[in-house]
Amino acid sequence: QVDYDVCSNYGNWLYSAGVGNDPRDSRKFNMIKQGLDYDGNGDYVRLWVPELQGIKGADIHTPWALSSAALSQAGVTLGETYPRPVVTAPEWSRHMQQRPVSRSPHPRGRRGPAQHKDRGIDFYFSRKKDA
Fold first, then answer.
1. What distance separates the 2 farthest-apart alpha carbons in the chain?
2. Core-most of 38, 48, 62, 104, by most CB within 10 Å?
3. Cβ atoms of 51 and 62 closer than 8 Å
4. pLDDT in tens, 54-106
5. Using CA atoms, how far apart are residues 50 and 127, in angstroms rounded to an integer?
6. Residues with Cβ < 8 Å from 103, sequence gap 6 or more?
7. Cα–Cα distance between 115 and 131 in angstroms, integer?
8. CATH class of segment(s) 28-99
9. DSSP, residue by residue, 46-88
10. Where is there biased composition of kind Basic residues (predicted)?
11. Binding-site residue ranges
């Protein structure tokens, strides 16, 4: 199975739904920020959402924000080949124009024993992990 850890997944889904235990008020899960932090080039999205394969780089996380020309070039028609967003949270706007190039691969800039810039999706699915 892909990406399955019972404790992590259930805890994260509950947290994302806003029913988890969180000491902060008005906490919201920011999908755009998460996409940029953990899939900066969009490889994971491109793997599982073939309708968006023509969109290059981090733009894949916000296809609705692209120009008509860019969507046309990528072969995407919002509302036909890919759905329009149901909601767009105001909190997303500050991340929509960012590019992950200078961002730390670890959330909030915390650093572990080693940094892996642009690991790509193969890093997460390979058996051998470098530290």
1. 45
2. 62
3. no
4. 999 999 999 999 999 999 999 999 999 999 998 888 888 877 766 554 444 44
5. 25
6. 36, 37, 40
7. 8
8. mainly alpha
9. HHH-GGGTTS-GGGGG-GGGS-HHHHHHHT--BTTTBPPPS--
10. 105-114
11. 3-5
The secondary structure of 86-124 as a DSSP string is: S---GGGHHHHT--GGGS-SSGGG---S---TT--HHHH
Retrieve residue 73's tokens: 């070039």
Ranges 6-20, 93-107, 111-125, most confident: 6-20
Judge whether residue 50 has pLDDT over 90. Answer: yes
Which residues neighbour 23 within 8 Å (Cβ) at sequence distance 6 or greater? none
CA distance 58 to 88: 17
**Best CA proximity match to 41, nearest among 105, 100, 126:** 100
- The residues spanned by each domain of the chain are 28-99
The annotation places the binding site for FAD at 3-5
Q: CB of 123 within 8 A of CB of 131? A: no
